[in-house]
Amino acid sequence: MGMFILRRLGVMIITALCLTFVVFFMTNLYPNLEKLAKTQGNFRMSEEQVATWLDNRGYTRPMLVKYGEWLGVVPGFVVEGTDGETRARCARLGSDVAEAPRFCGVLQGDWGYSSQFKEPSSKVLWKRLGLTGFLMLCALILTIPVALVIGILAGMREGSKTDRSLSTFSILTSATPEYVSGVVLIAVFASSAVGLKWFKGSATKAMTDASFENFTLPVLTIALFSIGYIARMTRASMTEVMTAQYIRTARLKGVSFQNIVVKHALRNALIAPFTVIVLQIPYLLTGVVITETLFNYKGFGWLLVQSAGNNDIDMLLGVSVISVVIVLSTQLISDIGYVFLNPRIRIS
């Protein structure tokens, strides 16, 4: 197990480097840098002025060098600008050029400076990630027990009315994307025109004071799709287990149906849903992009949309790093948990 984890960590690091380099390369293409220069300088800047602005701030150097500086494995640049001003990458947060450290990248905890929020990117990132983490936690607390109960009840008696009803509900919810279910929930439960006005359509206040009234609809919007998907996987797994030979043997021995389900079928049936549940966490990151924008909940997904719209390069890079780490970490947790749930599985 130890060697397996070490190998997976090595693959995770290589994968993270490749993915972050792709994002870094895309965000540092010249059209994006030109837009950044005109946004931070003057929209009427000429091509020569844009080139000078970028050159004075180190944006025109080789891509691999800039990527190494961003990671923190290459010393930060010191540039003598054509305007006579000396600029250093590691002095951009206000320290003196002469006293600036040599290395200042992600490995040193420097995630860059947000051109949109005018403050260190890490400060904004962790705040928004905390808000989204709370939203995702509430969605998972609702999703997991409801989905498992639906899937188990449907899979216990394949072909029954209960199975058909619950399966239909699961298919409908998993086939409905967030931007549709969110709009429907707002129209039905929050609209002042024709809705019931039980909840608030905007979740902005939930950022500081979450309540049942302002936080229910965003949680439901995220949870509905996941409930249907996990329930369908649980139902399929439960149906397969209930037709296994050892279940038939238990029935022939006179074991009660309740004991068969609880003691024999349930643990084996939950192996596949466990993997699905863990891998739903990265999916929720994409789901919150739509949900947070729809409900004006300014979390991690909202931050991604705003950073992309405002060409906030350092913030986009920070979002990409966190997303990659979350995806790779959940995959590792899923593999390790799979082994513990099913002792018959061995790592070669």
Structure write-up:
With 348 residues, the chain is an all-alpha fold. The protein folds into 2 domains: 2-108, no CATH class; 121-341, MetI-like (MetI-like fold), CATH 1.10.3720. Helix content is 67%, strand content 2%. A two-stranded antiparallel ribbon has the order 1-2. Helix 11 (271-295) packs antiparallel against helix 13. It is elongated and about 90 Å long. The model has no long low-confidence stretch (mean pLDDT 83).
Concise summary:
The chain has helices at residues 2-27, 30-40, 47-56, 63-71, 121-156, 161-174, 178-189, 212-242, 245-252, 257-269, 271-295, 300-309, 313-341; strands at residues 78-80, 86-88. With 348 residues, it is an all-alpha fold. Strands 1-2 form a two-stranded antiparallel sheet.
CATH architecture of the largest domain: Orthogonal Bundle
Considering the protein shown, what is the CATH homologous superfamily of the largest domain?
Answer: MetI-like
Largest sheet: 2 strands, antiparallel
Task: Compute the CA-based radius of gyration.
Answer: 26 Å
Q: Tell me the overall shape.
A: elongated
C-alpha end-to-end distance: 10 Å
Q: What's the tally of helices?
A: 13
- Which CATH class of the largest domain? Mainly Alpha
Query: Structural class given helices, strands, pairing?
Result: mainly alpha
At the fold tier of CATH, the topology name of the largest domain is MetI-like fold
Query: How many DSSP E strands?
Result: 2
Lateral strand order in the biggest sheet: 1-2
How much is the average pLDDT? 83
The portion of residues forming beta strands comes to under 5%
